[in-house]
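step 4 of 6: structure.
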Amino acid sequence: EVHLVESGGGLVQPGGSLRLSCAASGFTFTNYWMHWVRQAPGKGLVWVSRINSDGNNTNYADSVKGRFNISRDNVKSTLYLQMNSLRPEDTAVYYCARGQPRQQGLDPWGQGTLVTVSS
Amino acid sequence: DIQMTQSPSSLSASVGDRVTITCRTSQSINSYLNWYQQKSGKAPKLLIYAASTLQSGVPSRFSGSGSGTDFTLTISSLQPEDFATYYCQQSYSTPRTFGQGTKVEIK
């Protein structure tokens, strides 16, 4: 069964850093683009970033560009999101999701991990 | 960036009703349009990709149509388990923008 499990969320002060992880299982991790999507409390879904199968092609939303870094370890089948210079508006549940081939949507999604940026 | 406009933002419907949600994009995205369902406290689930292709395991009462800039998600006969929030998303270009969501509530 295909499974994605996020971890690493928590409470961090403004200006702080946090690294999220997403452990993948049940599929050949190296064959897929991977994405991060976030959702602020009570709000809608916002796409954050993606990385290609080799890890050498990345894209970011303007709101996180220069502060967040997406990466992957294909040996460990794990996706990461390094978040620096965190702001209160980064408070959200962060989901990792697998990109289907040929741009056919995101499936499946992990259960999400909550990041709270507050003093 | 491609802007996504969903309507309505919420609706009330009864079990058995036909429900239609629309999504309009700020530029043509061919058929690179996906629909997701999110239940309260849960992760989103892919329902439809490429505008009209049902993801495996999704009930046939869900259908999608459209191309270019105008798209529709239809639930032919609303079931109790369909009460949720629905999002459209374009996969034509980055950033992969989402619509603001449509909350489907019980009348």
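step 5 of 6: annotate
 - The longest strand of chain A covers residues 18-25.
 - The two ends of chain A are 40 Å apart (CA to CA).
step 6 of 6: archive
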